[in-house]
Specification:
- Helices cover 80% and strands 0% of the residues.
- It has two domains: 1-48; 51-94.
- The longest helix has 39 residues, at 8-46.
- It has 94 residues and is mainly alpha-helical.
- The termini are far apart.
């Protein structure tokens, strides 16, 4: 765009922002579909007798913020470890 006489701000406004908007919309739709899929899968496995993590966190929103933060961090660590383990197993098979 600089070759055509546009400034950096015009290039960002006309080229980068429209592409970011589409990417953000796709990311939001993917996140929503994964969240709904996780809820449905957990509901199929355990039924409605048990609370899923998301429902438990929603019910605890007025309680201790430290506890819910620690629970979310622990959840992310477990997911990270499982992802690393899956990658290691996948590399061994190649």
């Amino acid at each position: 765009m600089h070759l055509l006489g546009a400034s950096t701000a015009q290039a960002a406004l006309l080229v980068i922002l429209p592409n970011l908007r589409k990417g953000c919309m796709i990311a939001m739709l993917l996140s929503f579909s994964f969240l709904i899929g996780e809820f449905v899968f957990a509901n199929l496995l355990v039924g409605n007798r048990y609370e899923t993590l998301q429902v438990y966190l929603y019910n605890m929103r007025n309680g201790s913020g430290h506890f819910t933060s620690a629970l979310v961090i622990s959840y992310f660590v477990v997911v990270l470890l499982l992802t690393l383990l899956a990658n290691a197993v996948g590399k061994e098979k190649e």
